[in-house]
Amino acid sequence: MGNRVKRRALRTKAFAAGVGLLLSISFPIPLFPGSPFFFPARAERSEASLVSTATREGRLAVFDDAWSSINERYYDRKFNGLDWDAQRTAFRSLAAAANSTDEFYSVLRRMIAPLDDPHTRVFAPEEKFDWWHPRLVTAGIAIREVDGAATVVEVEPDSEPQRAGVRAGDLLESVNGEPALSLVRAHLINPVVASASSRYRAFATVLEGTPGSSVEIRWKGKNGNERAARFLRYWQQRELGLRIRREREGVAVIEIDAFTRPVAADFARTLKQKLAGARGVILDLRSNGGGDTDAMTDLASSFLSPGVGLGQFTSRDGSGFTIATRLKSPFMPEPIPHTEIPLVVLTSERTASAAEILVASLKAFKRASIIGTETCGCVLAIRGRHELPDGGLLDVSEMDYQTAAGERLEKNGIKPDEVVVVRRNDLYSGRDRAMELAITELISLRGGKERGQARLPNQETTRIKL
Prior knowledge:
Blueprint: H1 2-17, H2 19-22, E1 24-25, H3 56-73, H4 84-96, H5 101-112, E2 121-123, E3 135-138, E4 141-146, E5 149-155, H6 160-164, E6 171-175, E7 178-179, H7 180-187, H8 196-204, E8 214-220, E9 226-232, E10 234-237, E11 242-246, E12 251-256, H9 261-273, E13 280-284, E14 291-292, H10 293-303, E15 309-314, E16 320-324, E17 343-347, H11 354-364, E18 369-372, E19 380-381, E20 386-387, E21 393-395, E22 399-402, E23 418-419, H12 424-429, H13 433-450
Parallel strand pairs: 12-13, 13-17, 17-18, 18-23
Antiparallel strand pairs: 1-14, 2-21, 3-10, 4-5, 6-7, 6-8, 8-9, 11-12, 15-16, 15-22, 19-22, 20-21
Helix pairs in contact: 3-4, 4-5, 7-8, 9-10, 10-11
């Protein structure tokens, strides 16, 4: 108990000294769903100090530590309407009787799931990896809801599913003999009033499982023919970063996977070195699940004036802090470059957390046009990771967020200015209608400007202003 109090005191002291060092906002569901996605590196406990979940006593020690940590730290004293004491009663005996580490962690996840909070999550010791090079478990297929159906939205190149003929746009009919939509409904806490983020997670995780296991799927192709095959789940390494490409008539597209400090530095260099002649920028955040708040703030500072409020975070005891744009980054030597270039932002259900804060701020100050689909509505804050007695990890949502105007984004999300939903035919043809509309809008903006007509709000120039 003394060690726990000491760790908590150290964490509180560090938090008071520098919020940006510990506050991480992230979303756990990657493009290929399964295992954790965004996590900072951490110090390891020695093997001798770890308890073993192979014993009943060890399982109960880990269970009690996880339950108590959430009980003490969760941002909402009412636990989103969940009876947290009852969860302990219902799941403690199941945890004690678990026959394996996988089964034990499944019990923990079942206990946490009714919180309906993608930020509060638990990971077994073997699932750990570093923030800069995340890995995840996949069967090589990403599933998403399209027109109410479980639909393949991406197939990993040169994977077993691709060789078996699975294509983006195909319908997922069943998983291990169970109808896909039945599995989706089983993942939803309340199918009648499920939030957009809950539905997204339910579809995205329908193929989840442990690495080395296999999954049998039946799918329906474009011609209506059904096929079936069994695929192996495996670890896949991902690289977080920033990619830039030029489109027609001087429009630049910047795709950002997550907000990390290296990404923020790359973005600053991109503004200075690669966009001097650009006529407009499309910021593609459709696969951005969040990240470091300081990194996100640096990006926001490139588009908005210094001192603009980006919102505030509040813990359950009422304490909190605000974030705002700035002239200088705490982790880059040079001033943050500023631009008034015309901007369009692309969003989707996967746009989450810190990415939603950026989108909300750009929209509130009429700095960008937002195109795509409604964002996740997943905006809570994790101060620091908690290491469980067996070496597993627990993330706990400790702070709620409101925009500078006092609007809460959790479970609400951000509606785009122009809604463009994905259709099956788009997937089969490889067409990106949201991107097409964004490019057209920026080109049209350029034409209107040359004729002295309307422009996007608050966008007075088309070149980089450093």
